């Protein structure tokens, strides 16, 4: 495993932690200020994730396969519902 590959792995790890922390910060901010807009907030967060993935796929010109879309839905819907549950608790 080369140095570049190892650096890429660390960058993904840092990006993951930053994304999780920003999401957690946004949820706590929303919970304190505007609880009525919970679903709207989650739609914005998950919509931004979808747009980011689409932009990356278009920029890389990768072919989108149906099975990846299916897996995205199968993992995304429970993730959305879990986030909604945590905001309501």
- Return the structural class: mainly alpha
Number of helix segments?
3
What share of residues are in beta strands? under 5%
Order of helices and strands: HHH
The count of β-strands is 0
Report helical residue fraction.
Answer: over 70%
Low-pLDDT residue intervals, each spanning 5 or more residues: none
What kind of sheet is the major sheet? none
Spatial gap, N to C terminus? 44 Å
Overall average residue pLDDT: 79
C-alpha Rg, in Å? 16 Å
Tell the overall outline. globular
Walk me through the structure.
It is a single chain. This protein has 3 helices and no strands. The protein has 89 residues and is an all-alpha fold. α2 runs antiparallel to α3. It has helices at 3-33, 38-60, 66-88. The protein is globular and about 45 Å long.
How are the SSEs placed, and which strands pair?
Blueprint: H1 3-33, H2 38-60, H3 66-88
Task: Pick out its properties.
3 helices; mainly alpha; 89 residues
Concise account of the structure shown:
By secondary structure, the protein is mainly alpha-helical. The chain has helices at 3-33, 38-60, 66-88. α2 (38-60) runs antiparallel to α3.
């Amino acid at each position: 495993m080369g140095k570049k590959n190892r650096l890429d792995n660390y960058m993904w790890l840092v990006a993951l932690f930053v994304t999780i922390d920003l999401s957690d910060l946004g949820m706590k901010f929303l919970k304190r200020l505007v609880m009525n807009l919970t679903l709207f907030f989650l739609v914005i967060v998950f919509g931004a994730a979808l747009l980011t993935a689409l932009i990356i796929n278009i920029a890389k010109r990768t072919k989108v396969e149906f099975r990846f879309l299916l897996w995205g839905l199968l993992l995304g819907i429970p993730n959305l519902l879990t986030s909604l549950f945590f905001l309501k608790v």
